C-alpha cells in the first residue's frame, strides 16, 4: 500500500457520516443500551451507555471502513455500526475484567 492509498484510507475511515453530533449522541445512547442487553452484564446508566455507544461507533466505523465506505451511511447504518462496535467493546471489557 503506497502513501496515497494509505492517506485516502485513513481519511475515509475517520470521516463522519451525515448524522451529526446530536445524532451521534442519540444513536450512542440507543446503541449502548442495545449492546448492554446483548452482552451480559453490560450497560451502566444513560451516560455510560452514550459513552459506550459513541466509542463503539468509532470502533465499529473503523473496523467496517476496511470493507465499505462508512461515510455514506445514514441513521440505520450508523446505528448498526455503533451496536457492532459497542458489543465488541463490552466483550473486550468483560474479558479484561475476568482476568
Automatic annotation (TrEMBL):
GO terms for cellular component: plasma membrane. It is a multi-pass membrane protein. It comes from Mycobacterium decipiens. The keyword ATP-binding does not apply. It comes from the Bacteria. Belongs to the UPF0410 family. This is GlsB/YeaQ/YmgE family stress response membrane protein. The chain crosses the membrane at residues 21-39, 46-68, 74-96. Its main location: membrane. Keywords: Cell membrane, Membrane, Transmembrane, Transmembrane helix. It is found in: Cell membrane. Pfam families: Transgly_assoc (PF04226). PANTHER family: UPF0410 PROTEIN YMGE (PTHR33884:SF3).
